[in-house]
Design goal:
alpha/beta; eight-stranded mixed sheet
């Protein structure tokens, strides 16, 4: 199991896009923009870019004309990236159906920046190191990596058990899961790059009821797959929480972190 094997639906990506946009660090995006050349056309590679949501969020925050190269294994998702340009007058998009865990420096030649969103936690340690080597010397903005904390309010006595099982599930198959940001920072230590980390939490409430319900259902299902003993209590727990969400009584913070690397 790795990023090369994960498949996501365009409906899920569409549902989460507003929450992603609200969560990402605008500070780091602005720092990246100041670091990039002000003249000429920027070339930006988006790894695991799917439907192009990272480009729709980031392109307006970067200067001038831009050419985005969106990498993903799913050709169906890439069709959306071409169809939904941020601003076709300033931004062009090229898609590459490719396995981002096998990229080499040659694949990224000429890039002014490399970006990714919700990717690092899907990598193994070897895949992360290989990706960082491929990007060496290039600015990187790596957004929305989970860090293993989800806070539900009001609290429930079962929250810690489900949270721990979910985090263990994310580490299955040697995936980094919640350890990805720390692993990336450690891998970059000694390279001479400036590495900045900022929080980028999802804030879920009644205004994002559909996303809250979808996220919570997946969270519970993954926890039960990891720890089948939880299944006996999962139904009542899920129903209780979903009822709170439908009544506007549930808020959730799902913690992520954004990473900016400036060589």
């Amino acid at each position: 199991m790795s990023a090369a094997a994960v498949r996501v639906s365009p409906d899920w990506l569409r549902l989460r896009e507003p929450a992603d946009a609200a969560a990402r660090s605008t500070e780091l995006a602005e720092r990246l923009g100041r670091h990039l050349p002000a003249a000429g056309r920027l070339v930006i590679h988006d790894l695991g870019g799917g439907t192009g949501a990272m480009g729709r969020w980031l392109a307006p925050r970067l200067p001038g004309r831009q050419h985005w190269v969106v990498h993903d294994r799913d050709a169906g998702l890439l069709e959306h990236a071409v169809a939904e340009l941020p601003d076709s007058a300033l931004v062009t998009v090229e898609v590459r159906e490719s396995d981002i865990t096998q990229l080499t420096p040659r694949d990224l030649a000429g890039a002014n920046a490399v970006v990714a969103s919700a990717l690092l936690d899907l990598l193994t340690t070897d895949e992360l190191r290989r990706m960082l080597r491929a990007c060496a010397g290039c600015p990187m903005l790596l957004a929305l990596t989970v860090v293993g904390r989800a806070t539900l309010s009001p609290a429930d006595s079962l929250d810690p058990r489900f949270g721990a099982a979910f985090n263990a599930h994310q580490r299955r198959g040697r995936l980094l899961g919640p350890d990805a940001v720390a692993a990336a920072v450690a891998a970059l230590r000694g390279t001479g790059a400036e590495v900045l980390v900022r929080p980028s939490p999802w804030r879920l409430d009644a205004a994002r009821a559909a996303l809250t319900a979808e996220w919570f259902g997946g969270w519970v299902a993954a926890a039960c797959e990891q720890d089948p003993a939880l299944s006996a209590e999962a139904g009542a727990y899920r129903d209780r929480r979903l009822a709170q969400g439908a009544a506007g009584e549930l808020t959730v913070s799902v913690d992520h972190a954004d990473l900016l690397v400036l060589p």
